[in-house]
Write the structure tokens for this entry.
Amino acid sequence: MINLALFGAGRIGKIHANNVAQLASVNLKYIIDVNQASAETLAARYQAQCVDTATALHDHSINAVIIASPTDTHADILIQAALAQKAIFCEKPIDLNSERVDECLRIIQQQDTLCVIGFNRRFDPQFAQLKQAINQGKVGQIQQIGITSRDPSPPPIEYIAHSGGLFRDMMIHDLDMARWLLDEEPCEVYANASCIIDPAIGDQDDVDSAMVILKTPSGKLCQINNSRATTYGYDQRIEVLGSQGMLQANNNTATNLCFSGGSGIIHEKPLHFFLERYADAYRLELAYFVHALQEKNINCTPNAYDGLQALRLADAALLSLKKNAAVRL
Amino acid sequence: MINLALFGAGRIGKIHANNVAQLASVNLKYIIDVNQASAETLAARYQAQCVDTATALHDHSINAVIIASPTDTHADILIQAALAQKAIFCEKPIDLNSERVDECLRIIQQQDTLCVIGFNRRFDPQFAQLKQAINQGKVGQIQQIGITSRDPSPPPIEYIAHSGGLFRDMMIHDLDMARWLLDEEPCEVYANASCIIDPAIGDQDDVDSAMVILKTPSGKLCQINNSRATTYGYDQRIEVLGSQGMLQANNNTATNLCFSGGSGIIHEKPLHFFLERYADAYRLELAYFVHALQEKNINCTPNAYDGLQALRLADAALLSLKKNAAVRL
Amino acid sequence: MINLALFGAGRIGKIHANNVAQLASVNLKYIIDVNQASAETLAARYQAQCVDTATALHDHSINAVIIASPTDTHADILIQAALAQKAIFCEKPIDLNSERVDECLRIIQQQDTLCVIGFNRRFDPQFAQLKQAINQGKVGQIQQIGITSRDPSPPPIEYIAHSGGLFRDMMIHDLDMARWLLDEEPCEVYANASCIIDPAIGDQDDVDSAMVILKTPSGKLCQINNSRATTYGYDQRIEVLGSQGMLQANNNTATNLCFSGGSGIIHEKPLHFFLERYADAYRLELAYFVHALQEKNINCTPNAYDGLQALRLADAALLSLKKNAAVRL
Amino acid sequence: MINLALFGAGRIGKIHANNVAQLASVNLKYIIDVNQASAETLAARYQAQCVDTATALHDHSINAVIIASPTDTHADILIQAALAQKAIFCEKPIDLNSERVDECLRIIQQQDTLCVIGFNRRFDPQFAQLKQAINQGKVGQIQQIGITSRDPSPPPIEYIAHSGGLFRDMMIHDLDMARWLLDEEPCEVYANASCIIDPAIGDQDDVDSAMVILKTPSGKLCQINNSRATTYGYDQRIEVLGSQGMLQANNNTATNLCFSGGSGIIHEKPLHFFLERYADAYRLELAYFVHALQEKNINCTPNAYDGLQALRLADAALLSLKKNAAVRL
């Protein structure tokens, strides 16, 4: 039996708690949240105890922690947990500052900590099958990748204000996806962006529409586009062109119903909400983490290094936007 | 807490046991199967007890039974359970003989038994949404329905021999679907059929390819086609034409990946196996049954009357095939 | 140079005149129509002469005739033209009375007349490719065919009154398609039908919605559905299931534009008007006829026998509807 | 009657000659080509005369010229034709040197020459409908555009050597499309590219895979990807995201046939050859030119200024690639 401590009883913490509850041989022992009411509600639901950080980390029966607290607390909890010899599942990003992430990485490496970062999209069944098909040579040598990643509507402005900006908050998922699919570290990053959807986002010195081009040493090219709003839901598509063909991952819908009428042949919009679109991915990433823990597989991915590299790409994109030139890595 | 007894520890019994285990406030207390080994394996998995029929039905703590035993035992268990005041979830068909089903229905009515028949497709999310859209007037007045229902490959010949034939074994699902969507009892049935896939099926005096036309008193028409084999998987499509438009329910696939290469633009085949295609439907029908039981909703559907009517349509189709003429109901 | 006489300067006559004008080495010499004004307008456009039937048929320079006059004049012109040794392109149906068509066929055979019947759909590029793929063994042995054929809206009631009814006027195209694709003469026909769209059609003793099942001696099954109205345009689909796979011919659209917005993912409706949907087919059937004439290929198809057989199937469907039983042929 | 002189009897000259022949009230009088045999063959086919440039341009009956000769002769013929008061249809690019194009533009403006540049894609029915829908406000304010433009296979190396490189030869079409759809002049261009398909292309100091980002003053972003080879045919897609929704122009196929079999659900590949894919566009651009000439519409587009601006964008892309930085225009 694996005993878990969950840091964070908010939206994403609840998702993890529910997924943990489905896993045999895992016990959600502690929930830690500064918001006591949230912690207690969630703890009651899963027969867990509300404790403070120190209690959780000093309990030798605790094998692992899930860090789903606010971003600015991630690094601190992660370091304490690593020093306390716990396995770590940490929501992305580890921190918005890459030096701080680098520090976390060093400690993880010193402590031989098993650490998985919550780049959940790698666990989406469709994207996982895309990756597997690439690995099996289905498209041959990769030449071009295109990633479209658009939110149905912008988050609240207060969220934007503390998000680290579109590149570190939103595109970081796509940058991780690009690294993973390219199977080669990008060496050049160019970004351009606008605030064209909501001026309030621009007031926060952020952008709401962005395009990026990545290039790898072997010459693979990758383009990403991000938007904070569509009228048709959550748009998550990937296209991989290789020497043997093209693979496209398309949007998921609730059903395959189609209506033909006076205004056309109408298919369903993509699943609207990211928690719904990636429900399987959230479930499968936790199962993977637990499995890695059971197998003591310290080489599991995406790990803290992946977290660092995605952040570096996001930082480079932001720098590129400021310089209006490509940034070499 | 609802206490359940499950009759039948075979393939479909296992599905139900697993789905019951997901439901809070339901306890799978007993498993009954003449195959003691199967019963015990399944019981061990879900902390249930293996008992005989009498024990299960005489236990006053048992609120409901699931009948997933071989078809020829359904009616007998159903009658005993009804007389013992248990709520009943019974796999289709209740019996291959419509007089026997009629007898079951009478007892159910006399006993005010809450009874749901396992026409699982009504609970498929896509078909349920289709039905809901029809009810909301999306297609206006229904004029024509088309149902395509094709298995990926024929069942074993021994299964065919005791199946009651394609109409009572396979098309019965489509006939129930037709009744449900038409929202009007068909009054004419015509069937034609062939054994064109596997002569061994013909040796059992059965057919492997069939087409049916139904007509309702108001003039709605419905065509159904069945085949025991395709090369491309399990083909389950429905098309409804009405005065305001057409709704089509299309096949489900594992993912929406698409490959473009030298041999074309290739999408995934439909989910191959019926247990996989209808996994949600199996889960949701049980949840519906339990909910009906909690709400004491005796008017739940599909019920024994639906089971009887679908069987009558199947019998009429078989008679039509023999007479080569439409059969009036 | 082939000299042609065109009988009929109406809607379909104009289509043929225009297609003839595109063909090198064909001269449209005469146009014959009782409506003098129509004849003259069309003749002026293509530098043809307006004459009467006798003049046209007695002119030895005339090699061929196109019969696009009203249906009840087809047989008479066809017989005269055959006796005058002209090659014949005749719009379907030759006549609404199968005995009269049989008489035409005998004369055609006696005179060794090259005769093509205007079952234009055989010349549609998509359906022609479907047929070719079947011939090449793409689906293996055919087991089931499904034909959906629905008009966007009913013709005027005066047209209905003289049309011969849905089976002889509309479904005859689908019956010819079925014969052609099945590559085997159907031996059983069952039809059911309703007047459920417009009661005025029923007042003409006709139906507006129909379903048919055909069976061939080898056991192939074919289902056809017809409707006089949809809200989404002209619906022309074919599905062929065989031992090796399924081929589907889908609707054609003007472009492949797709709009994603608040009300869904919207594709274009099918081409609305049959003259637009089958523009290529009308052009190609004429080119085929002229080519057959140049090659003196008297075995060209679809010929008068095909016209007779399709009519017999339509008659059998009508008889089946009245008897509510299958009709054997 | 408009009298035309056609410069160039090669592949594209033949296309134009054939399209001109379909147009009533246009007479193809002269064909001029240094390859005398080609000129005579084509002239014979369309009852035209083979003459030299001076004869053609000094003939006062000649109203217009079509310049479809090798690229390095375009500017010279264009200037002579403009000075001779002829209307001009000129294949893209006018010249590979933007200063030379600028010179052409000045003369055209001085002479009030009616001039259309052969950016044929603007006349593709699908793209034209896309543009019209944008103009009608279907997507609201444009935020992002994505253009995918991939050839089925690279041209011969000799062609590459004199092509001006991928940006000026291939992407110029997409840059014109971007300008046209954005409806605003891009002010920033960034390009990255690789030679990853065929090293022989790299030996010519050219690239075979490229990605570009454009930005307009109002903040619209546009990404383009080009590839010299796919395994699945000619890939020509456009996606426009706006405040009200997204429009996608998808690939065209010969038919809508679909095969379902053991290896998946297989749709047709896109039309393979650009002359086939854009056959309608070649026909419609000529019709537009002739119509503009009849209407004396000197403001027709795409004109020489459009030709210049597209070339400037291509030059900027090439410069950006060398600098690895965005180029401001």
User: Anything to note?
Assistant: The first strand of chain D starts at residue 2 and ends at 7. The mean pLDDT of chain D is 97. The CA atoms of residues 105 and 305 of chain D lie 7 Å apart.
